[in-house]
Description:
Helix content: under 10%
Low-confidence stretches: none
InterPro entries: DUF604
Largest sheet: 5 strands, mixed
Strand order of the largest sheet: 1-2-3-5-4
Number of helices: 0
Order of helices and strands: EEEEE
Structural class: mainly beta
Pfam family, one: DUF604
Distance between the termini: 10 Å
Amino acid sequence: MPSRTFLNWYRRADYTAYAFNTRPVSRNPCQKPFVFYLSKASLDPFTNQTVSEYLRHRVPHPLCKWKMADPTTVDRVKVYKKPDPHLWERSPRRNCCRILDSKKKGSMVVHVGVCMEGEISEI
């Protein structure tokens, strides 16, 4: 979800005017987002999947107490996605993400694909 680091065309700060959700910029340094940059992308001809890899921008983060797995341990995200030529024929036109087991330490693997029964896609 993008931060509200921009304003819309209207003079009043109406954050509901966007076609996407935004979140307020937090003063708490532990709520500062982690930034990942696209490192490489390719098409695997054997599986017919796009494979993209993102590396975390290394900036100092404060020590925070997390109520979840520590996100500072993730340095690399690998995303797999098969082309879906029928995406525009379905409604809603959204895919779901699944976190897969990663064999490498400090790495996260995500598979993006058609939502299966019981999966939720949110706006």
